[in-house]
Amino acid sequence: MKSLYTALLLLLISGSTLIFAQTYSPANTDAPLSFRNRALAGTIPDNLDLVFDPIELRFVEGTHIFTNLSNLTSGDEQVLQNQSDNEYLIGVASQSRLFPNLWGSLLVRFRNNRASAPIAIDSDLDGFDDIFEEGSVQNNHTELLDVDSDGLFDIRQTIFQERRNFPSTRMFMLVNNYSYLSGRWTLGLRLAYGRDGDKSTTADGIYGSGTGPLLGVEKGAASSGFDFRVVNLPTNLPNFLQSEFGNFLTENKGRFTLISGSAMSRLRIGNLRNVEFRLDAGYRQEKQTRSIFDTYDGSFANFNSEINGFQDNFQETQTDISSITNLADGFHSGFSLKQVFNAGDERRYDGFWKFGVDYTRMWLDYDFDNAGSVIRNQSVFDGSDTLRTDINSAINASQSTVAANSGTFDRIAFSAQVNAPLDERLTFGIGATYRYSKVDRDGDQEFLVAQNNSFEVIDATRGNDFDQVVNETASGALTFSSEEHRIILPVGIEYSLTKSQKWRLRFGALFDFVKRVENDRFEVTDAQPRVVTTQFSDNTTDVRLIDNTTVSTSRQDKTNASSTDFLYGLGYSPLTNLQIDILGFLGTDENTEILSTEFLRQLRLSFTLRI
Questions:
Q1: What whole-number distance in Å separates Cα of residue 377 and Cα of residue 51?
Q2: Residue 348 to residues 30, 245, 508: CA-CA distances in angstroms?
Q3: Under the phi-then-psi rule, with left for phi > 0, alpha for psi from -120 to 50, and beta for the rest, what region is 43?
Q4: 161 with 123: CB under 8 angstroms?
Q5: 16: closest CA among 409, 402, 288?
Q6: Are 169 and 197 in contact (CB under 8 A)?
Q7: What is the pLDDT of residues 186-199, one digit of tens each?
Q8: Global confidence as pTM
Q9: Coil, strand, or helix at residue 8?
């Protein structure tokens, strides 16, 4: 009983501390990248990248249409192999016919998936899974046994098992941009809204004590039902019954809203003419929630018709209900300088240099509420003459945690980029970005653990029967900080293969270095003594105060990591109003022969239209 109580308290403290220490990062509200920009490591934009920028939108000619064939969700869809991200995507960008000074673009993404996840069942409980299905499975296994070898069946064993595993995901995202030309100024407006979520029908923790023959449930196990029966065939009476049921649901939800404005005008700075000076400012709000509702019930019972009043029963019930809410809202601002020194036929072919600074400040609020309980009842009676081996015992333990904290997230970024058309066939792009981000949070946590125990010896009159109540409370302060330095160095080269420049070969390299330091501390600020009140069967009462053993912890994690990714792609414009792009077109399987059927099926293609 003491071990159960201690385990509850330790699990309570450690689990909530880990949740508190998660690093915050703003939701990604950016539009997807074009295949051209991906292949060139983000150094040279395409029309897709420009039309979803509220300022650059003004410089894109014609009406552009983006569909699922544009392969913009992840870039990993394979059209010829029917491999997709299972999203619906539509985007359009155009200049207004009614208001020639107004441009607009809209991007919509939608996904609603409910899958049947893999399931494995050990039908005969021999320790090896022998049924492999997906979604929902029921299996009934029956065995007839001749235990005394007299040629007649004596025992019937039935094992019924059920598994349910249906994860689901949902996502909706809308990005709307407007660009308006007013005199020397270009004004931009960006509106973005998104929500997503997922559900899982698997266990978030470990349930079932494993006491006696109970199988219990491991973390990640699917919602299940289990019923095991042993019946004596001559009497048709049960010898043994066992059942275990688990219903598990974990749900994550998130949403964000972004409103930002931009303004750009051409200025003269020293000897530099037509420098585009740009300002950006906006507000964003985010909410993330996580809820867990897990229930488990397991029991077994032995039977013996030859002993009057025979009992051998055990039952265990566990519940875990949690709710986590993360709120964040704040603003972002920035400015940039850009000069076009070699204008192309289209904005995407301009040569330019650009320098920018961006700053984001978010205010964070976090709430955590958890309640869990474990109930165990056991009755054993195999005859009144066995003395002090027949008992009734019960344990009812519960815990709850309430935590709240607040903090800030700050991020500043400096970026520089040069896009240099070296001649009419070759374009070279290079850039550098430095980002510094910091999270500071602090808050309080309160713990409450309660346990009721009862113990009764049925076949003895000694006064060692008792009812016991245990209570303990504790509270503590949590502080968390994180600092991250990130350096991103991209480079890209695009080469026109033909005189008509309809074919373009692209290569890029992206170097990424990150240095991160995290510090979190939990300090117990108040801990009341454990109060153990025991009422014995002889009406005596014992009250004990047991000092708590509290532990304050401090942790620091340091991470340095660098990586270099090489990218490549191919672009082809057979018509003025059609562009075809291929990303990583040689595949990743070294055994695949070029121009084979498998090679063609692995191509990642993107089709975009201009009217």
A1: 66
A2: 19, 60, 17
A3: alpha
A4: yes
A5: 402
A6: yes
A7: 999 999 999 999 99
A8: 0.82
A9: helix
Q: Taking every pair of C-alpha atoms in the chain, what is the biggest distance, in angstroms?
A: 108
How far does CA 520 lie from the centroid of its chain? 22
Identify whether the C-beta of residue 475 lies closer than 8 Å to the C-beta of residue 446.
Answer: yes
CA–CA gap between residue 163 and residue 120 (Å, rounded):
8
pLDDT tens by residue, 551-591: 778 888 999 999 999 999 999 988 888 899 888 877 666 66
Pairing, β 118-121 against β 102-114: unpaired
The amino acid present at 93, given as its one-letter code, is A
Asked if residue 170 lies in contact with residue 192, where contact means CB atoms within 8 angstroms, the answer is: no
From CA 357, how far away is CA 433, in angstroms rounded? 10
User: What value, to the nearest 5°, has the Cα angle with vertex 26 and ends 25 and 28?
Assistant: 115
Give the type of residue at 130.
D
Cα gap 302→308, rounded to integer Å? 14
Structure tokens, 581: 């792009």
The string of pLDDT tens digits covering residues 327-356 is 999 999 999 999 998 888 888 889 999 999
Question: Are 316 and 214 a contacting pair, CB within 8 Å?
Answer: yes
Q: What SS3 class is residue 235?
A: coil
Residue 109: CA atoms inside 13 Å, Cβ hemisphere, count?
21
- Strands 391-421 and 237-269, how do they pair? unpaired
Contact 275, 341 (CB under 8 A): no
Q: What are phi and psi of 306, to 5 degrees?
A: -85, -15
Distance CA 387, CA 528 (A): 40
Residue 16's pLDDT is what?
42
Query: Both tokens of residue 423?
Result: 């001649």
Contact (CB, 8 A) for 177 and 190: yes
Write a three-state SS string for 67-80: CHHHCCCCCCCEHH
